[in-house]
Amino acid sequence: MGNTHSRSQFAQPALYRILDANLDRTREGIRVVEEWCRFGLNNAQLTERCKYLRQELAKWHTPELRAARNTPGDLGTELTHPQEETRDSIEQVLQVNFCRIEEALRVLEEYGKVYSTEMAAAVKQMRYQVYTLESSLMAYQRHQKLKQASLYLVTSPSETLFNTIEAALQGGLAIVQYRDKETDDLTRLSNARKLQQLCQDYGALFIVNDRIDLALAVDADGVHLGQQDMPLESARQLLGPQRLIGRSTTNPSELDRAIREGADYVGVGPVYETPTKEGKVAAGVEYVQYAAEHCPMPWFAIGGIDTTNVQEVLSAGAQRISVVRAIMQADQPTLATQYFLAQLNQKQTLRGSRKVLSNGHPVTEELWS
Ligand SMILES: Cc1ncc(COP(=O)(O)OP(=O)(O)O)c(N)n1
Ligand SMILES: Cc1ncsc1CCOP(=O)(O)O
Ligand SMILES: [Mg+2]
Q1: Which residues does the record give as 2-[(2R,5Z)-2-carboxy-4-methylthiazol-5(2H)-ylidene]ethyl phosphate binding sites (predicted)?
Q2: Hey, which of 287, 324, 329, 337 would you mutate to test ligand 2's pocket, going by the most ligand atoms within 8 Å of its Cβ?
């Protein structure tokens, strides 16, 4: 390397071994992430970004460094931690590997300063590129899950909160929103943490109602904001681009604004009057029809929806619904969830053959994707 410095005979082999081991570690970690981007997400852009990073790194992995390898004499190959032997989910595999890549890049940067300042500078840039890749990947995963979700449960305070949510998750629920206007912040924080973990275990999205601080504190997937809550622009600044922001809308002009402001999804309703939002005027199925014709991103019909009227909401054009009481107060939340999902899936299957709207325009959400 160009600007190598004089080193003691003792230090040089160790330095080369550290660099060799961490170049390997980084490339292996990137490969793990790359395989998911390629085979799991089928995403050419993310796959290319991983491949580019691996190739950039390979340029620094010179024969000189490889020659220093001494695997039989490396104590580290024997050391494993029980936590390394199991992973709960793909998300965890990705998280662990991003950590590994970022750590190894930091080691390369620090020891690289002794070996080659160009190398240290290059791996520093790569570390920032990996942070960006991690954010993009997380954002992509969240948007994919959102697009695939058709049933969204908004919680209400309940003695059996966790059992009810877990039962609904077992029924196939894909999004949970923690909504609690009654308790203190300590309880909210503790509930939100438990729900976040539960959702992660089941691969579901976890959203916090109203509170950006709480969403950030528990590493939620996003936040849901009403018309009286934080403006979207400020929320985006606080949450960053990788988390989801949902907005409530009750009429076409609120919907148009939410689209312009870049909400990731919207609530459409209340479709019917509901005791869950006492005194709120119903927007009616006409507004559901309007959303079906005009909303380019995922939207959830909400408000007073239950097993008796869900068909009417679907007939008005909804492909996704959100409920509180119909699951929170169900005797069997798993069955209630499965019932709604079956109705929604049946609708999706029927819709498969109809690629244009009644006005002749293509289905808007397909244009969005
Ligand atoms: C999915 C979804 N849609 C609408 C709402 C209502 O939000 P908001 O208008 O802020 O009212 P509160 O829920 O805060 O009382 C929602 N929470 N979720
Ligand atoms: C939070 C919210 N926003 C619009 S309607 C509603 C409550 C829906 O509750 P339910 O499903 O019990 O009618
Ligand atoms: Mg609100």
Answers
A1: 274-276, 304
A2: 324
Determine the 3-state secondary structure of 120 from DSSP: helix
CA–CA gap between residue 362 and residue 292 (Å, rounded): 12
Residues 86-122: tens digit of each pLDDT: 777 888 899 999 999 999 999 999 999 999 999 999 9
What is the reported pLDDT for 233? Answer: 95
Task: Please tell me if the CB atom of residue 324 comes closer than 6 angstroms to any atom of ligand 2.
Answer: yes
Consult the annotation and say whether 317 binds a ligand: no
Gap between the Cα atoms of 179 and 16, Å rounded: 54
CB-based neighbours (< 5 A) of ligand 3, an ion: 210, 226, 229
Q: Evaluate whether ipTM surpasses 0.95.
A: yes
Ligand 1 pocket test, candidate residues 248, 250, 305, most atoms within 8 A of CB: 248
Cα 184–chain centre separation? 27
CATH superfamily of 149-354: Aldolase class I (3.20.20.70)
Mind telling me the catalytic residues? Answer: 179, 248, 277
Q: Which residue has the tokens 């959830």?
A: 300
